[in-house]
Amino acid sequence: MRSLEELANYVRSTGKRTRIAVARAEDPNTIASIGKAVNEGFVEGILVGSKPKIEEVCKAEQINPAIFRVIDTRNEEEAVTESVRMVRDDEADVLMKGLVGTDKFLKAVLDKEKGLLPEKAIMSYVCALQLPGYHKLLFISDTAVIPYPDINQKIAMINYSVVMARRFGIEKPKVALISATEKVSDNIPHTLEYAELCKMVERGQIKNCVLDGPLDIFLACDPQASIIKGVSTPLAGDADVLIFPSLESANSFYKGLMMFAKGELAGLIQGTIKPVIVMSRSESAASKYYCIALSCLMGGEI
Fold it and tell me: How far apart are CA 181 and CA 214, in angstroms?
């Protein structure tokens, strides 16, 4: 699959329906996106929140609320708690954030007794970008969870990204460790970790990928850059995955592309017992729809 529309076509073709619980669902873009997925037959929508407000949004979006299962809750906290409980108790397959702040939502996901993250698991975020200027989907991490990943967290980010890329049919994803320069330097500490990660691939400690770094964006994604710079890399300017040194750099990279290059994305929290969709409340209905399709792909053997 080389585009997000191909992803959506694929999950539609399976004939399977994924149960998605939306925490505080009274959000127009969220209801529009999940309503589209329900009408296309690959999702069962469970909307948790204020029933009157959900019905009001459905009316404004010209969507029949009867296509959803609506669970009425008294307030935001109850909506989030009930949505997480449903996923944990296997009453839903995917958890999706609606009109609720990310901090409050993730606090419930991370709750040690009632949340969705196994003990000692590393939570991260991987998204697939569809860009007009690139010939295939580009997977990037971490845009949302880990501010300054240490080497163990970087290993988890790589592994999660590789698993996702392989679900898209990329047998051995090309992973670029992104920096401002291709040189390993004591002055840029994460480049030292990158060198160690490359050695781990050589020794079979990181599997199922071709990995190189540090590389800048040009060396990772432009075949001509290695010729111009005289840098040899096994990625040959054809990266499938970009691993960034910090959340700030990854987040700024993807938001810039969404804003100025008019890209689309699909992303998921990684490390939880079931897929978790967390997007900005300002994201488009199209991107939320693609996130729903991605959760269906990653949540089961389809």
Answer: 7
Domains of the chain: 4-120+272-298 (3.40.50.10950), 124-260 (3.40.718.10)
DSSP state of 53: H
Is residue 96's pLDDT more than 70?
A: yes
Task: Specify the DSSP element, H or E, that contains 241.
Answer: strand 241-243
pLDDT for the residue numbered 74: 94
Closest CA to 25 of 98, 101, 103: 98
Q: What is the pLDDT of residues 20-49, one digit of tens each?
A: 999 999 999 999 999 999 999 999 999 999
* Of 210, 139, 197, 199, residue with least CA distance to 171: 210
Mark out the alpha helices in 232-276 (DSSP H runs). Answer: 247-260
**What is the helix (H) or strand (E) element at residue 97, kind and residue range?**
strand 94-97
Residue 295: C-alpha distances to residues 5, 125, 138, 274 (Å): 14, 13, 17, 9
Longest distance between any two alpha carbons in the chain, whole Å: 63
Torsions phi, psi of 49, nearest 5? 160, -155
Q: How many angstroms separate the Cα of 246 from the Cα of each of 122, 241, 286?
A: 15, 15, 27
